[in-house]
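Problem: given the chain below (134 residues), write out its structure.
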Amino acid sequence: MITPYLMFNRECDEAFKMYQKAFDGEVVSMQKYGDMPPNPEFPVSDSEKDLVLHAQLKLTESGFIYGSDSNRDLPDGTKVSISVELNSEDRALKAWEVLKEGGSVYMDLQPTFFAKLHGSVQDKYGVTWMFTVS
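Solution.
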């Protein structure tokens, strides 16, 4: 499945409420940074616990958007990524290797508490791809 993924500078919750109102949408899920299991490699300060880690909003019968608050300041124009959800680690690794060549890795493709593999890479054309293997 491929879904637009919107990144925000501390305003994801507010933006998703507006989008929900605009489209009579349904918030399918909204996880906050404070909901994550503690991880010394990714400490979460008290001021960040209410920020959105991952949200899913159903806009139409079959149309969704995902979103989260970034841990870095994002200028306008860099707030949309393509989220690719796969059930094959091999397919994800193949695509990852091709897209990272000449690009920039934001988060290594690695196991996480919510997926077998997850990572984010910007390809050499400036397009940001987020991979999740369940």
